[in-house]
From TrEMBL, chains A, B:
SUPFAM superfamilies assigned: 6-phosphogluconate dehydrogenase C-terminal domain-like, NAD(P)-binding Rossmann-fold domains
GO MF annotation list: NAD+ binding; prephenate dehydrogenase (NAD+) activity; prephenate dehydrogenase (NADP+) activity
Organism per entry: Bifidobacterium xylocopae
Keyword Oxidoreductase: yes
Entry protein name: Prephenate dehydrogenase
Length: 347, 347
């Protein structure tokens, strides 16, 4: 086995002692509160001081400027601002972020953020991050450490990612937050996130708009129950936030919307011609089976079989990417070389 | 004011003493348990006796045949079978259902059920019913009286509907279940239900199928969080049940799917051309405002202003239909002539 580059000998599991958070909104605030609750030292900066009093009561240290945050030498600096604010934040960070600090973010698209990071020359310090959690609310007042209960993080890497920095962010995720992670390349992340989040946000919004413009809206809205409420919940998200997320992932989202529209037109045609709808309903069966496995696994979490993945100094990136492709999640690192993974349901 | 036809003098609020339920599945079972819990006498029949022991433990009387159920002279007989079983049930009920029994159902489409009722000559005894509740599970084992907490019922009438029978079913809904109701014609119901339930079930299924067939499904499914879970929950419903519901409302559902597909293609085109997505996200704003009003009203239910609606012997149908069109719900009848209604949010 080759020695792993860029890593301290051991232990690697407490490398993210001090965490700086840029933006104390729903996600940044929840992240900060969770980390504080689990014993990490957290310093936050927000573009207005409005949440500072509440943040300080929650044990979060605050500073007056982004520059001060960076100069305080956090082990990890997390960008938790809206996507559209990131380029400005990165430009201000580039001249002041210490070499030893690792930069990550919680943005819902990863390719565009990496480009912005590269544009200001911070690629060597960057590991992309995306916690799969959130809700339709926003602001520190809506923050909740439990938002990170059993959340899965996608950590995104490319050929320039430093393994030691990857482990430092992994420490924040696993030990700092009690979460799990998978390792992805930006392209796979952005296509997958488009499929299970960005495109559905657009569909939800289109459903809400369809009702809003419908002559029967008054009666229909009165009749709306669980199915409608669930399908339109994310349409209640701040539209500027959703729009930014969708705009940064345009090509993937547009292609999926075309594909879904074509499927809906297809079912409509089958209905109009009186064709058998059986094949359409059958086509979702693998998903029903997948979810049934997943719910069964949740009922019996103790039966999750842990397996070890011995990581190689040169091959760690490909090994971890392959682990994710096979539906596995990293639950911890027992050492620099030894990741412990569990399987999800397969299909 | 004209005297109201077909009604006892008073009180009208306890006219549904004995309730017969055909089909003890998720909805029939939950309905029966809720009615028993609130003091009504409930007799059930199911096509297999599998749920009988559990039903009896829940205080539900059971009989060996549909005919016996009818001959027991229930004040209200509720058809709670799958839609596809209704024609056979109705054929068997027609020769044995006593004149004094009022027939209703819980089917998710109302026009086709009324046609089936007419085909067996039971129109004079029928009031259509659809409780806006349910979930993705099925069977008596999944039944839960709380499924009817704050449920809204659509009671569907036409020019032949007897007012006394309408009040009897209203008694079951309001006093028997603690629920509220609105009065609709079948066409408005079926269009509205297509909009907020039947079409969204198809969209949810199409989303699930899109994921199931996608090359990135393993990673995407691992990343799936709240937004995806909510949008695909109803795709987990027994596909035969969803299919029957959708098939009975084909023209409405197909037209809405075409409309949604066209909107999704439109947004995709805007994304591809780099157009401003602002107007698309703005188009859902009336729905966000409506839901904000609705949630505010839920936080302060005591502030709901009750208004009385004095019903006229000849005009009751049009008066109640108009009440629903204005977004109002009937919370009780203080007498045969006096309905008490509350407003929902307007848009």
């Amino acid at each position: 086995m080759h020695p792993l580059p860029g890593t301290a000998a051991s232990p690697i599991l407490t490398s993210a002692h001090k965490i700086g958070i840029v933006g104390l909104g729903l996600i940044g605030g929840s992240l900060a509160r969770r980390l504080v609750g689990r014993g990490r030292f957290v310093v936050g900066w927000n573009h207005t001081t409005a949440p500072y009093a509440a943040a300080q009561r929650a044990g979060i240290h605050t500073v007056d400027s982004l520059e001060e945050l960076a100069q305080g030498k956090p082990d990890v600096l997390v960008l938790a601002t809206p996507l559209k604010a990131m380029p400005e934040m990165l430009e201000r960070l580039a001249p002041v972020l210490p070499k030893a600090s690792t930069l990550t973010d919680v943005g819902s698209v990863k390719g565009p953020v990496r480009e912005q990071v590269a544009a200001v020359g911070l690629s060597d310090r960057y590991v992309g991050g995306h916690p799969m959690t959130g809700n339709e609310h926003s602001g520190f007042a809506a923050s909740d450490p439990n938002l990170f209960d059993s959340a899965l993080w996608a950590l995104c890497v490319d050929e320039s990612t430093d393994y030691g920095r990857f482990l430092t962010v992994a420490d924040m995720v696993i030990q700092g937050l009690g979460d799990q992670l998978i390792c992805l390349d930006d392209g796979t992340h952005d296509r997958s996130a488009a499929l299970i989040s960005h495109m559905p946000h657009v569909v939800s919004t289109a459903l809400a708009a369809l009702l809003a413009g419908h002559p029967d809206r008054q009666v229909a809205a009165a009749l709306a129950a669980g199915s409608w409420r669930d399908m339109t919940r994310v349409a209640l998200t701040d539209p500027e936030r959703t729009r930014a997320m969708v705009e940064e992932d345009r090509p993937n989202v547009a292609a999926l919307l075309r594909e879904l529209a074509s499927r809906l037109d297809g079912v409509a045609a089958e209905m109009e011609s009186g064709a058998d709808l059986g094949p359409f309903f059958d086509s979702a069966q693998p998903f029903r089976d997948y979810r049934a496995c997943q719910m069964e696994a949740k009922r019996t979490p103790d039966h999750e079989l842990e397996e070890e993945l011995i990581l190689d100094g040169h091959g760690w990136r490909e090994q971890l990417l392959d682990s994710a492709r096979r539906g596995r999640r990293i639950v911890r690192f027992d050492s620099v070389h030894r990741a412990i993974e569990v399987s999800g349901p397969n299909w």
